[in-house]
Amino acid sequence: MAYSDQKMSGGKIGALVIVALIHIALGYAFVTGLATNFVKKQVEKLNTFDVEEPPPPPPDEPPPPPPDVPMTPPPVVSPPPIVQNPNPPPVTVATVPTPPPVYVPSPVVAPPAPPAPPAPPNPISKAAGLKGNPGQFFGADNYPPSAIRAGEQGRVVAKLTVGTDGRVTDCSVTTSSNSSALDQATCRIAKSRVRFSPAQDAAGNPIASSYTLPVRWVLPEN
């Protein structure tokens, strides 16, 4: 191959490259132009479609005024006659219920404490004993005159309290003779004339004690 042929083939190749580039540029421009025109057409189509709002309805016409009607005055009605009731209704008196009394509890006072029991007496080691014969003091010489006149006689039982000195300090009738003169004479004579040896405790000391004295009163014979 000659030098001239090599030069010509290199020029053909350059021309072909240039022609290819021109075709590519024309194709790109053509495609780009078609796309732009399509979008514009679509936008124009969208812009040409307008939605029209419906016109508002016409306002309602006011109703016609009512016809003038002449005013007729109401008829005059006389009031009914007043009827006097000869028997007036009974007067009802409302009673107000009385409220129940209010209970106010009174304070409860505690009962006083019971008294202390008395001290137990000293145990009696030896009981009180009579001195002499007390029957001699309740014979005919000391018989109450009022009981003799009334014909009274009977049995008296007296409870005597004997002191530490052997004398009777107290007397109470536990069984009566049904004669006050005989009962009183029994206690009077016992206090004044009856004597005892006092009772003693375990240590031998005299202590107070009690004694039961029965007396039978018999009317003296004349």
Number of helices: 3
Mean pLDDT: 77
- Please state the CA-atom Rg, rounded to the nearest Å: 78 Å
Strand order of the largest sheet: 1-6-7
End-to-end C-alpha gap: 222 Å
Order of H and E elements: HEEHEEHEEEE
Q: Which geometry do the CA atoms define? A: elongated
- Percentage beta strand: 15-25%
Write structural notes for this entry.
This protein is of the alpha+beta class and 222 residues long. It is 29% helix and 17% strand. It is built from three helices and eight strands. It has helices at residues 3-47, 145-150, 180-193, and strands spanning 124-126, 129-130, 154-162, 168-175, 196-197, 199-201, 206-207, 209-217. The strands form three sheets. The chain has a three-stranded antiparallel sheet with strand order 1-6-7, with no helix packed on it. Strands 4-3-8 form a three-stranded antiparallel sheet, covered by helices on one side. It has a two-stranded antiparallel sheet with strand order 2-5. A hairpin with a 5-residue loop joins β3 (154-162) and β4.
List the helices and strands and how they pair.
Layout: H1 3-47, E1 124-126, E2 129-130, H2 145-150, E3 154-162, E4 168-175, H3 180-193, E5 196-197, E6 199-201, E7 206-207, E8 209-217
Antiparallel strand pairs: 1-6, 2-5, 3-4, 3-8, 6-7
What's the gist of this structure?
With about 220 residues, this protein is α+β, with helices and mostly antiparallel strands. It has helices at about 5-45, 145-150, 180-195; strands at about 125, 130, 155-160, 170-175, 195, 200, 205, 210-215.
